[in-house]
Amino acid sequence: MFNKLLATLVLFSIMECEAQVIGKKKTILFIGAHPDDETAISEVLTKYARLGNKVYVLIATNGKDGTRVTKIPAGDSLGTIRKAESVCGCKALGIEPPIFLGIERLDTKIGTGNYFREHQRFQDSLKVRIPALAPDIIITAGPDGDTHHSEHIVVGAAVTELLLAEGWVEKYALYHFAWNKGVASIDPETYMDEKYVNLKISYTEEDERRAIVALNCYITQFTPEELKEEADRKRMDKTNTINFRKFVVMKGLIKDFE
């Protein structure tokens, strides 16, 4: 009898917590380098949209040079298609239409001088866009860039740099998503030691289904075989969680290196 009462109380407590979370609507902003970067955490994005929160995806470039599995040559035509793919993906997830900043590239393939100019343009754009959207939560890639992609790393670093530079660390909560060691991914060497993970977001099978539907929008980036393989991997992963690490900074002076 006592165990049944305890179980009932625990269930009621969980339901009450969920109701509080659902009742407190948030604005969540994912910042990525390319159309399709949001697929890394699609399940989480669609979950929070389903719960009634505003979820935005902000993308630095249009991915016009990303000719991974398409015969379409690099250039504006490909960029237009990739933008349309991201619009399709965001619609499937039930989140806001993607916001494109139109940055050329964020690596030195365009020349060092051009890279510095585009990096500055990216930061200037973020400085305007972030306060305009006023997100409660910002999500981006951590130091590993999700897959060690240089532009992913630059985007994550630029967002982190801006929050430090403008004194926004406490104003906009920043989270880097991360993977457990051994999880199958494009780059299995991108992982974080479990002891540094301080947030695990769970999602439902319906969230997973929406993520798979959205993934199929990106036909310039994945072959049909890869799309099936990734969908199967998602279904086989019964943990249904994605890891995050909150970016925090110790404030106050110390006397020396500890």
Your description of this structure?
The protein is of the alpha/beta class. It has a single domain, classed as 3-Layer(aba) Sandwich (Rossmann fold). 45% of the residues lie in helices and 14% in strands. The chain is built from eight helices and seven strands; from the N terminus they run H-E-H-E-H-E-H-E-H-H-E-E-H-H-E. It has helices at 2-23, 42-50, 76-93, 112-133, 145-148, 150-166, 205-215, 224-236; strands at 27-32, 54-59, 99-100, 137-141, 173-178, 199-202, 241-246. The chain has a seven-stranded mixed sheet, with helices on both faces. Helix 2 links the parallel strand 1 (27-32) and strand 2. The radius of gyration is 20 Å and the shape is globular. The N and C termini lie far apart (54 Å).
Blueprint (SSEs and pairs):
Elements: H1 2-23, E1 27-32, H2 42-50, E2 54-59, H3 76-93, E3 99-100, H4 112-133, E4 137-141, H5 145-148, H6 150-166, E5 173-178, E6 199-202, H7 205-215, H8 224-236, E7 241-246
Parallel strand pairs: 1-2, 1-4, 2-3, 4-5
Antiparallel strand pairs: 5-7, 6-7
Strand content of the residues, in percent?
A: 5-15%
Structural Rg: 20 Å
Q: How many DSSP E strands?
A: 7
Distance between the termini: 54 Å
CATH topology category name: Rossmann fold
Order of helices and strands: HEHEHEHEHHEEHHE
Query: What count of structural domains?
Result: 1
Which structural class matches the secondary elements?
alpha/beta
What general outline do the C-alpha atoms trace? globular
